[in-house]
Amino acid sequence: MQKEYDVIIIGAGPIGLACAIEAKRKNLKYLVIEKGALVNSLYNYPLYMTFFSTSERLEIGDVPFTSISFKPGRQDALEYYRRIQQHFDLNIHLYEAVNSIELKDKLKFIKTNQSEYYSKNIIIATGFYDIPIYLNIPGENLPKVSHYYKEAHPYAGQKVVVVGANNSSVDAALECWRKGADVTMVIRKGEIHERVKYWVKPDVENRISEGSIKAYFHSNLKEIKEKSVTISTSDGEIEIENDFVLALTGYRPNFEFLESCGINLSKNGRFIPKYNPETMESNVKGIYLAGVVCGGMETHKWFIENSRVHAKMILEDIFAKSI
Ligand SMILES: Cc1cc2nc3c(=O)[nH]c(=O)nc-3n(C[C@H](O)[C@H](O)[C@H](O)COP(=O)(O)OP(=O)(O)OC[C@H]3O[C@@H](n4cnc5c(N)ncnc54)[C@H](O)[C@@H]3O)c2cc1C
Fold first, then answer.
1. How many Å lie between the centroid of ligand 1 and the Cα of residue 128?
2. Domains of the chain listed by start with CATH number
3. What is the pLDDT of residues 246-265, one digit of tens each?
4. pLDDT at residue 106 in the model
5. What PANTHER family would the database entry show (predicted)?
6. Given a cut of 90, is residue 1 above it in pLDDT?
7. Is 291 a pocket residue for ligand 1 (Cβ < 6 Å)?
8. Mean predicted lDDT score pLDDT of the chain
9. Residue to mutate (ligand 1; options 129, 197, 257; most atoms within 8 A of CB)
10. Nearest CA to ligand 1 atom 5
11. Dist. CA 99 → ligand 1 center (Å)
């Protein structure tokens, strides 16, 4: 049986779901293919994270998002997006990964790890949270090293190095310290990042200046061993005892996948995919980009807040071209 659609949406993150709602509203034949759970990136966020956005800014499909606290947490968001899926009864295949897209005449041919599909249009809403930016240093593949942070409990009473000075690193360092870990931050630049949430930045700066959390500025992690790490500091190399490393140095979109679809990436080291900002159509006709994947390495540029509008822009363009 040939499975042919008007639009296939890759990724069931908040923005992929927003696209699905608009496709359904326009009576298009659509399918969402998601390699993990519903809103898989949010599912993998730190257990007790709080969004910097207020709940109404995370809403999609014009459905109100209510939460007790004005800034919702991960659990609130999972609840909301689950209800969105149930309310709209969206057509989603979970736990199915898209491996490739080929152009076949006017159609796109999509191969997943389970099946094959044809579609007139594709929306790539694959986010950036699946691929960490690696340190590429010896010992990075040891089991004590993680590029994702879930919760502080495993680190209680342990010597933990946190690499990075952005929101993820700062939240992890503070939480781990508060649950009894001995925390050392290794920070490439001379200060905590300016984009750290304004209500958290003074907290970490004060913990560092009082010596509760140790921090090496202008420093890089050089090597990780079973029981120690080597840090290259402005005063030379030092080796300190260590049980765990949280290398929270950011994530990036799957550029190899985008290029394999024929999408051009900017050559300035930012790898920003080429798209028309009015329609979100990429340089490949009928392949659209939605959500945070649009930012390339500039992963701080797009959020749920400002990219949920992509859904209406894209589906209006697809619908206009279909009539
Ligand atoms: C810790 C943290 C806190 C944040 N807080 C906020 C906030 O307060 N406000 C805000 O607006 N934004 C926030 N963001 C950013 C926001 O959560 C993300 O930008 C959001 O998840 C983006 O939605 P998306 O749908 O574009 O991508 P994602 O949510 O990442 O969804 C992409 C989906 O595509 C799937 N996928 C990837 N590749 C494939 C494939 N080959 N086949 C099938 N499926 C695939 C993934 O599994 C994933 O489910 C935060 C991000 C982080 C990391």
1. 7
2. 4-131+251-322 (3.50.50.60), 134-247 (3.50.50.60)
3. 999 999 999 999 999 999 99
4. 87
5. THIOREDOXIN REDUCTASE 1-RELATED-RELATED (PTHR48105)
6. no
7. yes
8. 97
9. 129
10. 51
11. 19
CA 194 vs. chain centroid, Å, equals 20
Query: Mean pLDDT, to the nearest integer, of 296-304?
Result: 96
Q: How far is the CA of 318 from the centre of ligand 1 (A)?
A: 23
State the DSSP string of 244-313.
EEEE---EE--HHHHHHTT--B-TTTT-PBPB-TTT-BBSSTTEEE-GGGGGTT-TTS--HHHHTTHHHH
Instruction: Answer whether 49 contacts ligand 1 (Cβ < 6 A).
Output: yes
What CA–CA distance (Å, rounded) separates 143 from 265? 34
Token pair in block for residue 306 = 């400002």
φ, ψ for residue 80, nearest 5 deg: -60, -50
- The Å distance, Cα 207 to ligand 1 centre, comes to 30
Nearest Cα residue to atom 38 of ligand 1: 126
**Which of 13, 10, 84 lies closest to 43 in space, CA to CA?**
13
8 Å CB contact between 192 and 204 = yes
Contact criterion met (CB below 8 Å) for 162 and 185: yes
Question: Which bin fits 62, alpha (ψ -120 to 50), beta or left (φ > 0)?
Answer: left
Place of tokens 């959500």: 291
CA dihedral 237, 241, 246, 250 (to 10 degrees): 0
Cα-to-centroid distance, 126 and ligand 1 (Å): 7
* Distance separating alpha carbons of residues 264 and 261, to the nearest angstrom: 9
Yes or no: say if 286 and 200 are a contact pair by the CB < 8 Å rule.
Answer: no
Amino acid occupying residue 183: V
Cβ of residue 13 lying under 6 Å from some atom of ligand 1? yes
Residue nearest to atom 1 of ligand 1 (CA): 45
- How far does the centroid of ligand 1 lie from the alpha carbon of residue 77, in Å? 12
Residue 288 pLDDT grade (very low, low, confident, very high; cuts 50, 70, 90): very high
pLDDT at position 93, please? 98
Ligand 1 centre to CA of 14 (Å) is 7
pLDDT at position 124 is: 98
